Every structure is written in structure tokens, then in C-alpha cells.
Amino acid sequence: MNYINDLKERIDKIEKGGHEKYHQKNEEKGKMFVRSRLKQLFDEDIDVEDAFFANNMADGLPSDGVVTGIGRIHGQDVCVMANDSTVKAGSWGKRTVEKIIRIQETAAKLEIPMLYLVDSAGARITDQIEMFPGRRGAGRIFHNQIKLSGRVPQVCLLFGPSAAGGAYIPAFCDIVVMVDGNASMYLGSPRMAEKVIGEKVSLEEMGGAKMHTSVSGVGDVLVKSEEEAISYTRHYLSYFPPNFREKPAAVEPKTVKQFEKSITELIPENQNAPFNMLDLIKQLIDEDSFCEIKKKFAPELITGLSRIDGKAVGIIANQPRMKGGVLFPDSADKAAKFIQLCDAFNIPLLFLMDIPGFMIGTKVEQAGIIRHGAKMLATMSEATVPKISVVVRKAYGAGLYAMAGPAFEPDACLALPTAQIAVMGPEAAVNAVYANKIAELPEEERPQFVKEKQEEYKDNIDIYRLASEMVVDAVVDPDKLRSELIKRYQIYEAKNVTFTERKHGVYPV
Amino acid sequence: MTEIKASMAGNVWKITVNEGDKVEEDQDVVILESMKMEIPIPAEEDGTVKELKVAEGDFVNEGDTIAIVE
């Protein structure tokens, strides 16, 4: 029975990963061993593993530095690739790349989610001919990701570096969870930046988790520890079906707890005064069901997954507390990706409007606010999932359009009695129409005149007038909005439409 | 020491603290007026207002320093 012992010994050795000193180094940084990560991620552990023996003839390259296989999350089979940073810093050799490609092919074949647990220094330069340029070189990983996108959920958990070409793995995932202090993404390291372009910069500043989740928007979720990254991912996946053919599973509905202030009391009557939109969201969704995405990036727009009566709903809401809830290039971009994410996996959408419009001025025009805004309009327009928009307060100008206004085929556009829909607000409108007249008036008569004209204007855009013109489908008591939404989503579940026939649109990216 | 910066371009409408005041995280320091909206600019952490860099009525661009908190 010598060969049985021999097999056991080989397995034992490979399961231990790289040299002890690298395990220690990782531990000091608060990093778990790759196999411990997988144990925590799955309901039990990884169930089946492929190419465990990859590169076992070489010295010190167990599994060629990556674990690939299938395990279960909430009972659902999920494919995974996980770098082992104790093996040559998680770098990619020929077999590493082939293993990743194969598990992606499995995810495509079985139509189940694909997770990427990334902690890798990038390509092994010594192996470049075998792993870089060819048909089954690293480029194929990205090609596969792009093909999988929208077919199955793809999540990246970033535990360490994701360098150079490797940084495209997170880029093509639906969502990137980054561990503060350890996770980083960059095309060229700080050392390279100094050598090649003469820039002196720290890794944290150039590619750290805080930067990417608040400035660049390449990262989506900032977490403090690996444990938190894993529990966030398990929670996030609970809102998703295994692939685009299925609908997300509903859970036991939870009620909303009693709040100190009702929605009516929450919303200030003065359209220009800020309030916290998150307080309103809490009153519409099941208790503790909000899973916010890109919390720190472009916070003037809130995006997140939630449950309403047990069913998954994606929320896009203006946040008047931040930058007045005005849309900027970054917030439009944030909305576009989130809408695509929800629409791809049959998650209904809810738009909550309180928006003075898109930002104006030189800075945003130079940043291309028109094309970024167009991106948001395009994805919102194309979304065929049940889509409800609610005009909470103001909805001015293109803001009304971007937030699924009546022209963009929402299944319903509801208004609260505080709603105000117009090309622009009363102050701006009176100024635009009567600028010459105001200038001609003696100064003491101006305030009175402006006030009168503003009141006239307000009457003209009165929400009941707009309801009478059938611009909105209903005016709803704010404190009954939740039950109205529950009824409507229930009804619109039967919706089954194709946006239009064509190969694909030409996107305003 | 942290610099509190304008989150967007606008006019300084109200300054709600004085130099030397203690402020808490998320407490409004200045309210801008932009796009006809009130835009509160809160402190990012607890501290004391060391210096106010703007006066009411000033125009500020996105990223301009409004106050310094220590």
C-alpha cells in the first residue's frame, strides 16, 4: 500500500501551500491562508477542486499558486479561483493561467456564478512566453470574463495586490470588494512610476483600497478585514440568481420597524433644504436589507440592493444631503453600471428622485458630463426589468429623464404630494424669463415682482396639474408608498419584454 | 489636521461655526449655495476649527479649502 501513503504525502505537501515564512508574513498583515479563506467563504468548504496537482513536479509551486474549483454559497454552486500568495507571491505561470481559464469555462458551461479571490503580484516573467501572448494566455482570462459578464454574477474579492494586466480581473467583475490596507490595483507600481515617468507616489495613494473606492470608482466596497469581505460577498450574492435566465430568490418578508418620524415629517417642504434620503429608503424596504454599493464614491447618488416584501429591488436615489443631489460625471457613471447589473440579473429597479439636475459649469463640461449623463440615460432606458420611478420632491431638467422619468417607459411614475416637475426650479426660471424686465424695474419693486412670478410659476407646475395631464400615473400618500410599491412590483413581475432587436447599441461611453 | 474642502462649486451662503469652535464629525461647518440648493459641508472628523478660509458670499470652486480643523 505504499502508493496510498505516497499519494497522501503529496496531498499533504500541496495543501500546505508555500514556505512557512510566507505564511507568517501574510499573518502579520492580517491575511488568511487561501484555503482558510475558501473554508469561510463556502457553506462548508470547497467541494471539488481541479488541477490540485498542477506543476507538482516543480519545486515550491504547489497547485501552481492558485486554487480552482466549486463550492456552495447559500446552497448554490459557485465557481472560484483563489490566488495563493504564499506561492511566488501568487504570481501567474502557464498552469495558473490555464487553471483560471478552465474554471471560467466551467462557470460558463454550468451557468453558475464565478468568484475571483485575488492576491497576486502578476505575471511570472520567467514564464512569459507560455502564459502571456498566446491563445490560452492571460488575455483569454479577460476575454472569458467579458463573455461571462451579464450571464453569471462575477465578484472580485481583493485581498492583496492586483498588478499590471492582473488589474483587469477586478475591472471586468460586477463588483470589487477591497480590504483596506492590503488590497491594491495599479497598472504600474510606484517603483515603475518613478523610473518611467519620474513620479514619486505611495502605493496607497496611487492604487490603495481607499483611493479606488472613493476617487477612481474602480473598487466598489471598502472593508476593514478579510472576514468582512467574505461576509459582504455572501450577503451580496443572496440578492442574485445563479444566471441571467433565472429570477432572484425571494426570502421571508420582513416588516419595517416603527420610526420616530413618518416619511411626511421627514421631507422638508422647502425644496432647496437638504434631508437624508437614506432615512426615506429605510422606511420603504425590509428591515436591515440594504446592501449599499459604492457608498464612498459619488455619494450624491445612492445605489444599493434591498428587499421589499422579501423580494430583491435595486435602488437608485438622489441624495440631497450630498452636493445637493446634483448629478455629476461620476454619479452618472455609477448609476449606469448599477442599472446594468440589476437589469442583467432580473432585479427590479426603483428610482427615487429629488434632483435639481445635472451639474453645470466649465469643470464638468470638460469632464464630459454630457456623455457620462448619456450613459446613464442609455442604460436606464434599456433596462427591461420592472421599473418604478418616484418623484419625491423636485425633478428638474434632464434630472427627470436620467431618473426614469415618464418618457423612458417606467412601469409607473409615481409622485408624492411634495413633487415638483419642471425644466428648472422657480428661482432659475423667473430669472431666465424675466431677466430684462427685472433689470428695468426700480430696485425696491424687484423682490415683490420676483416673488409674484415665482408663485405663478409654482402654480403652473403644480403636481395635481401634472397628474391631470397624466404626466405621472398616481399621486401617493408618502406614508403609504411602501404598500403601493409592494402591490405594483407584484403585478409587474409578469413583465417580459425585449427592448429592441439589433446586434447592440452604440454606447455613449 | 484636516482641510475641509468644497465638494462642488458654489457661493458660501452661511458659515455655521467660528474659529476656535469645537466640531464633531458630520457637523456642518459651512453651507454653500449652488444649483439653487443648500449644500452643507460637514467636518470629516472631531476637532477644533483652527482657521476659516472663506467669508459669506465668497465663490468657491470644487476642491477649494474652506476651513482647517485640528
Automatic annotation (TrEMBL), chain A:
Record InterPro entries: AcCoA_carboxyl_beta (IPR034733), ClpP/crotonase-like_dom_sf (IPR029045), COA_CT_C (IPR011763), COA_CT_N (IPR011762), MCCB/AccD1-like (IPR045190)
Keywords assigned by UniProt, alphabetized: Transferase
Pfam name, any one: Carboxyl_trans
PROSITE patterns for the chain: COA_CT_CTER (PS50989), COA_CT_NTER (PS50980)
Tree of life domain: Bacteria
Annotated ranges, domain CoA carboxyltransferase N-terminal: 1-252
TM helices/strands, residue ranges: none
GO cellular component: methylcrotonoyl-CoA carboxylase complex
Alphabetical GO biological process terms: L-leucine catabolic process
Positions of the CoA carboxyltransferase C-terminal domain: 258-496
PANTHER family (alphabetical): ACETYL, PROPIONYL, PYRUVATE, AND GLUTACONYL CARBOXYLASE-RELATED (PTHR22855), METHYLCROTONOYL-COA CARBOXYLASE BETA CHAIN, MITOCHONDRIAL (PTHR22855:SF13)
Descriptive protein name: Acetyl-CoA carboxylase, carboxyltransferase component
Source organism per UniProt: Lentibacillus persicus
TrEMBL record, chain B:
Listed Pfam families: Biotin_lipoyl
Domain of life: Bacteria
Domain Lipoyl-binding: from-to ranges: 1-70
Name by which UniProt lists this protein: Acetyl-CoA carboxylase biotin carboxyl carrier protein
Database matches in NCBIfam families: PRK05889.1, PRK08225.1
Organism field: Lentibacillus persicus
InterPro entries for this protein: Biotin_Carboxyl_Carrier/Decarb, Biotin_lipoyl, Single_hybrid_motif
Alphabetical list of PANTHER family matching this protein: OXALOACETATE DECARBOXYLASE ALPHA CHAIN (PTHR45266:SF3)
CDD domains xrefs: biotinyl_domain
UniProt keyword list: Biotin
